[in-house]
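Attaching the record inline, Q. Sequence:
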Amino acid sequence: MISIKKPGTSSEGQQDRQQRAYAVGSRLARARLECDAPDDAQALREVEASDVVVVGGCYDHVERVLGVLDLPYTALDGESLHRARLRPDQLLVVNCPGTVGKRAISSIRDFVAEGGSLFTTDWALRNVVEPAFPGIVEFNERPTRDDVVRIEVCSKDNPFLAGVLDGQDDPQWWLEGSSYPIRVLDPSRVEVLLRSRELEKKYGEAPVAVLFHYGKGEVFHMISHYYLQRTELREARHQKPAASYFAEKNVAMSAPEAALASDLSLGELESAATSSRLIANLVARKKRKVAEERGSQKKTPGPLHTR
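Structure, as predicted:
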């Protein structure tokens, strides 16, 4: 089945609301990180542009979330990816649609096998993940409609999900028309991090975010677009003012944040803060892992030489 994805149809006013939601949500995410995971917060402060490589996409824009989190990154276009010298200490982000060219597929596979981390979204499932890592996950050939579904955490002990969902959290995940549901082919290798019963009921598959290891590295993939362009206010809680979300998290809201979020809802801020915290966790954990590995190597004595 061939599906054509429509360009985003968000109005200019809606785009402004989402930009402000991410600006405030990212500040909240980092404030909570400072309290909940100070080592991760310190790792984020040490991130350099070369640590995160982002392949741009015309449909998704993970780099916008990195931007509001004040995280530097290196931008590449898909056509030049095969010429890039990727290092295993990097996080490679491939935005939907994942147009990287056939020559880059083997480079991506080798990058992950040697210890690199890969994060992909939506159509990159078919264009990157399937050809690079066959037999693990695939598109189920049932593209979604433009929809919003409730998500839930499957693996609460996974460090990548720390602080993403807790307490009363009930974020709504936007599925753009023709998003690709994720079918798990090898359950022994794949960990489902986030799932949606609504997604499964409507489109046949529950996974929203999955993780699997390949060689020394790891692959994260999420359905739809990571930079969420709208949400849905289903419950009375979602319709509360954004300041209520700060109160739920026991974080003080600054005057600039209050001004930016004055007309925003709790639901809008919740969706932005949730996705901001997840990408912050991914970047921080990668940075810490690399630092720990380098520290371990320095402590390991060299081989003994005898005459």
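Residues 112 and 137 are 16 Å apart (CA to CA). The domain at 12-292 is CATH 3.40.50.880 (Rossmann fold).

More tomorrow.
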